Amino acid sequence: MIKFLRTLWKHIAGSIRDLAPIVIVIGFFQYFILQQPLDNALALAGGAILVLLGLTLFVYGLELALFPIGESLAYALARKGSVFWLLTFSFLLGFGTTVAEPALTAVANEAAKVAASAGAIENSDAARARYVLGLRITVALSVGTALLIGVLRILMGWSLPLLIISGYIMVIAMTAVAPPEIVGIAYDSGGVTTSTITVPLVAALGVGIASSLRDRNPMTDGFGLIAFASLTPMVFVMAYGSIVTWI
Amino acid sequence: MDLTGPALKTIMSTAFDVLPIVLFIFLFQVFVIRQPVRDVRRLVVGLAFTILGLGLFLVGLEQALFPLGRLMAEQLTHPDFLMRGAGMLDSHWSNYSWVYVFAFTIGFATTIAEPALLAVAMKANETSGGAIHVWGLRVAVAIGAATGVSLGCFRIIAGLPLQAFILVGYIVVVIQTIWAPRLIIPLAYDSGGVTTSTVTVPLVTALGLGLAETVPGRSPLLDGFGLVAFTCLFPIISVLAYAQLSVLRERFAGRRKMERQNRAESTSKEVI
Fold first, then answer.
1. Which element (helix H / strand E) includes B189?
2. Cα–Cα 20 to 30 A to B30, which of A146, B22, B152, B272?
3. In chain A, where are the structural domains located?
4. pLDDT in tens, A137-166
């Protein structure tokens, strides 16, 4: 019991340290720069306690479930020796976790507004809904493709910098072609696709695959999956914007 | 204020987000791998903790910190605040110094609190056998994100093209990649995507849209976006730089140690 409480306190202390900067920044600006009193300090304190508790539980759950699941799946798939199933799994994991991502839906809705106001699509609810759905599927496809390429890279031992730099070149080339109003949203879409549940799972997957292969280093080969997942959406979204606008 | 209603709703929606992933992994386990899962109880408990934890975390943020953060982004970019002292609002970029300070500090603070970054830092620490410190990596990423957000705000205020900044950023990353220690490169590339998650994206987006609405001559639709891209790019640069600095420091320390040894040897010879 004492041991349990000590572990719990260690986790909570870690969470306090993680959240202190936000509280300090907001408090400092509120009192010294904007010089406005806080209206609902009580609600704020309640929220802060929930955040603290939530972060503590999340980290605890991470070590109990998400990391072991990702790793044991990677080991099992690698042991099975089937490249086909490993790649299918990576693609579906990327596609499935992205298509339902709430942050992506929010960005897609903004993008539809921009496209409608720029005259790329009809300014009606139906046309916007179609555009949003198309965009979400495009980004989900791009994240699926990203994980597929990333896992293939670990298996084949391809150079990560070379692949990422080719990605950068594609982003820049697409920027020159794509309609200007989509560029900002496309660049932002790279960041929003990797959610808090997906990231630990994908990190464990990469490291798991790399450490189950004999001549791969988990540090240099296991990481890099998320890098692909935040690069390909930029290219795919600009391609989507160009196709909708120019055709 | 009663938090039970929104708390339940957010936990339910988090569970709903996680459900397809769990189902998919379960199906794969049963039909493709065809092996019984070990330690099912532990996994179920852990997953419940993850969902409950993320749910509570999001409720707390949405009820308390996000509204305040958004309000502050609005207040700091509001003409009334910016015009203090000056007679009229000038859209010159140098009049917005508090915005840059706020952007830097909030970028840093939200990145430190980002659960996804914490997860990757823990994984990197474990994988590298402790060579990469959890806290060191997080601070390096946070400094990058902070620089990205404040530079992104400067871009919106000054009305400079987004593509130019991103292009220069890419060139810097490529140059750094040539000299950076190989071990850190994949992790550095990953740290960009990891930064922009649950905590950072909503606050940074609010800041960008607020700025683009207030600054004369900017349109929220065209100029309001791009801050997330900045926040995503600069951690790559800062993590690579952090690794390069530690290599340099080691090399420097190594040379000093050698000099000291040489000196010690020569003095000992003199004594003899």
1. helix B185-195
2. A146
3. 1-63, 81-246
4. 999 999 999 999 999 999 998 999 999 999
